[in-house]
Structure formats: structure tokens, C-alpha cells
């Protein structure tokens, strides 16, 4: 096996310079069945409401933030088919073991921590109420547990 392929992601040897005008931020914006339910679920991961819009007394759009992580959710009232969710959220935590224990204590189902090679060596998986898959990876390389 080529050792350069086994030691993790890296940019190609020759990377073209980016264009002068380019984007500098990406915020996932996803359709959910119930904005309030999504707000409550993502709160367990540290997200709080940065902004929200209500229609007829119920939130129909919200911008959520947890430090530098951002997510926007919206609904049109239609049901969500969780089998058709084609987005994978990749999140990072400095204390993955502690986050997993907290989520389990709050009644949220989460996988065991496993090896995410070729990406992060430690990661776990959970699914939000609308079927979006969340992978949470360890960002500090030497956490025990």
C-alpha cells in the first residue's frame, strides 16, 4: 500500500490558486419537519438560537450557533422522508467522550466512539429527528477514553 494514501487527507501536490473573488463561509441550511423540535435537539450539542422567524406564532426558520458552528433550519409544514436525507453533517468536539456521555444521559441515541480513518481517529454518529446523520469527531488528538 502507498504510505501517502494511508496517513490522512491532504491537498493534492499542485493546487491551483483560488480565484480572486470567492466565498469565505458556508452555513448548512436544511429543511426540517418541525423547527422547534430541531432547536431542542441541536441544543443538546450546544447550539442556541442566533435568530428566528415566526409565522402564526410558530418558528418556521431559525439560525443556530454553537461557537463557530452554524446551522439554519426551516420548514414548510411538509413531512420529511428521513430515508432521503442526502446530507452528512460533520461536527467537531474537543471532549468527545464527555459529549457522548452527556448525550446518552439526556436520552439521545449515539453510537460508540470508533475509528474514523481515513479521517479523524475518533468519531461517533447520531441522527437528528429529521434523519440527518451527524458525525462528531475528536479535534484534540490525545483525549483518553
Could you give a short description of this structure?
With 145 residues, the chain is of the alpha/beta class.
Features:
145 residues; globular; alpha/beta; single chain; three-stranded mixed beta sheet
Structure report:
With 145 residues, the protein is an alpha/beta fold. It has 3 helices and 7 strands, in the order αβαββββαββ. The strands form 2 sheets. Strands 1-4-3-2 form a 4-stranded mixed beta sheet, covered by helices on one side. Strands 5-7-6 form a 3-stranded mixed beta sheet. The two termini are 30 Å apart.
Reported for the largest beta sheet, the result is: 4 strands, mixed
The Cα radius of gyration reads: 18 Å
How helical, in percent, are the residues? 10-25%
Structural class call reads alpha/beta
The fraction of residues assigned to DSSP E strands is 25-35%
Unreliable parts: none
Number of helices: 3
Average pLDDT over all residues:
87
Q: Give, in order, the helices and strands.
A: HEHEEEEHEE
Topology, please?
Blueprint lengths: L2 H4 L22 E3 L3 H9 L4 E8 L2 E9 L2 E6 L13 E6 L2 H10 L17 E5 L5 E6 L7
Parallel strand pairs: 1-4, 5-7
Antiparallel strand pairs: 2-3, 3-4, 6-7
Amino acid at each position: 500500500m502507498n504510505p501517502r494514501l494511508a496517513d490522512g487527507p491532504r491537498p493534492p501536490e499542485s493546487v491551483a490558486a483560488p480565484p480572486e473573488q470567492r466565498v469565505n463561509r458556508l452555513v448548512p441550511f436544511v429543511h426540517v419537519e418541525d423547527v422547534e423540535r430541531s432547536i431542542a435537539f441541536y441544543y443538546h450539542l450546544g447550539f442556541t438560537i442566533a435568530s428566528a422567524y415566526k409565522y402564526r406564532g410558530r418558528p418556521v426558520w431559525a439560525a443556530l450557533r454553537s461557537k463557530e458552528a452554524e446551522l439554519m433550519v426551516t420548514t414548510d409544514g411538509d413531512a420529511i422522508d428521513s430515508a432521503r436525507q442526502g446530507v452528512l453533517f460533520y461536527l467537531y468536539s474537543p471532549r468527545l467522550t464527555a459529549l457522548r456521555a452527556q448525550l446518552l444521559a439526556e436520552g439521545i441515541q449515539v453510537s460508540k466512539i470508533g475509528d474514523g480513518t481515513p479521517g479523524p481517529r475518533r468519531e461517533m454518529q447520531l441522527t437528528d429527528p429529521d434523519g440527518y446523520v451527524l458525525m462528531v469527531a475528536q479535534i484534540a488528538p490525545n483525549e483518553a477514553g
